[in-house]
Design brief:
Shape: elongated
Helix content: 40-55%
Structural class: alpha/beta
Distance between the termini: 63 Å
Number of strands: 6
Oligomer: single chain
């Protein structure tokens, strides 16, 4: 096939992929804009009465307003086949919660009744003030109430303790953790620098367009390079086997080497923070109840 054929195919691929990427970015942005950032209690497992849910909603709004952080509680009866950590990360990526901006300061408590999993995560300012160690302490405090079915008490404890920690800058300790304060005052909120990435770069249409063009260009280049055909000539091409003095060949087995390698263990910890698929880093603490 000619180079022109492959170039046409590459151009067709480019024309198809760019609109799809732009459409994906538009849908993600639209979904984030529809999300109600003033709603904080998502009792999908129906563990709370209407009065309890309303009281927690009021408490989360009041405490969150003072700390400029969205305190969110999610209860689940199964996490759509996802690990609970992945569920929380996708929730943050897709819905873009935050106190006063998309993908802003957010602390999330999620429990899955199906797997008896609990996961706490902190994003942006909450990643620093609710670091892994502090989230571990909160989880240890509320787990007994969760195990006893005292969900309202556990969620109230999460909100109040998170509020207290958000007003106290983390300090260095023996484990080598650093002071994560960014010039904050004693109230932990007035002087915090939130950064310049109000919206993640991966969701910007221009970044998606450039990425699509780069990927398409690489694909077209590879296809055009391969269109010249392969070199199939080798030493056997010019050998006359009827006149060759090589009448036979054989292989001689001399020795064998056996290498043993220990099978990796699956007992690795999956707790702590990480980075979402959308590129947002976060702290975290995971356990069972």
């Amino acid at each position: 096939m000619s180079r022109n054929y492959f170039r046409k195919q590459g151009l067709l691929f480019l024309l198809l992929i760019v609109p799809l990427v732009l459409l994906f970015g538009f849908l993600q942005t639209a979904k984030a804009q529809e999300f109600d950032r003033t709603h904080y209690i998502y009792d999908r497992a129906q563990l709370l009465t209407e009065a309890e849910a309303a009281e927690l909603q009021t408490l989360a709004a009041e405490l969150g307003g003072q700390r400029e952080t969205a305190f969110i509680i999610i209860t689940l009866n199964g996490s759509d086949g996802k690990d609970i950590v992945q569920y929380v990360e996708d929730f943050y990526d897709e819905n873009a919660p935050g106190f006063d901006q998309p993908h802003g300061n957010t602390a999330i408590l999620a429990i899955d009744m199906g797997e008896r999993d609990i996961y706490l995560a902190g994003f942006k300012k909450a990643e620093q003030y609710l670091n892994d160690e502090r989230l571990d302490q909160i989880r240890d405090q509320i787990t007994p109430d969760l195990s006893d079915g005292q969900y309202f008490q556990a969620f109230s404890q999460f909100l109040n303790t998170s509020y207290e920690y958000m007003g106290q800058e983390p300090t260095s300790d023996s484990s080598g953790s650093k002071d994560y304060g960014y010039g904050g005052g004693s109230d932990g909120q007035n002087h915090y620098v939130t950064g310049t990435d109000e919206e993640n770069i991966f969701f910007q249409w221009w970044f998606q367009l450039i990425s699509s063009l780069v990927v398409a260009g690489i694909v077209v280049t590879i296809m055009a390079y391969r269109s010249g055909g392969r070199v199939t000539v080798n030493a056997q091409t010019y050998m006359d086997h009827d006149k060759s003095r090589v009448i036979g060949k054989h292989d001689t087995f001399t020795h064998q080497t056996v290498t043993r390698q220990r099978k990796p263990s699956n007992n690795t910890s999956s707790g702590g923070g990480g980075i979402t698929g959308g590129g947002h880093s976060h702290s975290g603490s995971r356990g069972k109840f």
